[in-house]
Design goal:
globular
Length: 251
């Protein structure tokens, strides 16, 4: 099954983008090719660009605190495991402390690394990191893979509290939803959302054998899905088949 996720607000959209970048970064760092490590560095720069948003750190801290208060309300509930509750609460507290202790925005300390910033100033230029532009960077790429990995891990370290905080918050959000099988008559599905509950994320699981691609839109009132097919002309065309997929709404 292919999982598609659609955020209902800008904050969750930012979290998903960062999660995507952190996953890519984790994969690239573990490889040994200089090309992979080049793209690991460019991914670090992408994360820094997203994390530079003025209110991101504040939003994450507020969400961590909010989730902690929500979990506290479950204490004493016989249907809730106290051990699991304590474990998740400890994760939230650890994330809050680590992120709160970072000075400034996440990754801000990396802007003081002149060597990294010289690379950052060139990556936006097509071919701008050639050996004649950045000979020191060219030499670094020809160094031992183990040494490059240690450098990358050192540069990533200031971003780890943000990565872990977003991982915990998105895990809690995803766990809040219950999957349901739905049918899209003639390739279209629309569901009015119940009032009194704010949904933040839609998750769609679709059998890849169907060859369908969802175009999703949504807000606090309604979620709509239009199923498309990638045709031989390299365009998306609306499906007219009755199709089933799994939908999870998370709040």
């Amino acid at each position: 099954m292919i999982l598609y996720e659609y955020p209902f607000n800008e904050r969750i959209r930012t979290y998903l983008r960062l999660e995507h970048l952190f996953r890519r970064l984790g994969e690239l760092v573990e490889r040994e090719s200089p090309t992979d490590h080049h793209y690991a560095i460019t991914t670090i720069f992408e994360i820094m660009d997203v994390a530079a948003r003025a209110d991101l750190k504040t939003d994450v801290l507020k969400d961590l605190e909010k989730q902690k208060h929500v979990l506290s309300s479950y204490r004493g509930n016989p249907a809730i495991s106290e051990a699991v509750l304590n474990d998740v609460t400890a994760q939230l507290e650890g994330c809050f402390a680590a992120l709160n202790n970072l000075p400034g925005k996440a990754g801000h300390s990396l802007t003081e690394n002149d060597w990294l910033m010289s690379i950052r100033s060139r990556v936006g230029i097509p071919g701008g990191t050639c050996e004649f532009d950045l000979p020191a960077y060219f030499a670094w790429q020809h160094g031992p893979a183990g040494s490059r990995k240690l450098d990358l891990q050192r540069w990533i370290a200031p971003l780890v509290p943000l990565a872990e905080s977003i991982r915990v918050l998105l895990t809690l959000l995803r766990d809040s939803g219950a999957p349901q099988k739905v049918v899209a008559p003639a390739g279209e599905y629309r569901q009015t959302l119940p009032q009194g509950r704010t949904f933040q994320l839609a998750r769609l699981r679709i059998d890849p054998a169907l060859g369908l691609i969802p175009e999703t839109s949504g807000n606090r009132l309604v979620v709509s899905v239009r199923l498309m097919r990638h045709a031989s002309d390299d365009r998306l065309h609306a499906s007219t088949d009755d199709s089933m997929f799994e939908l999870t709404l998370c709040s």
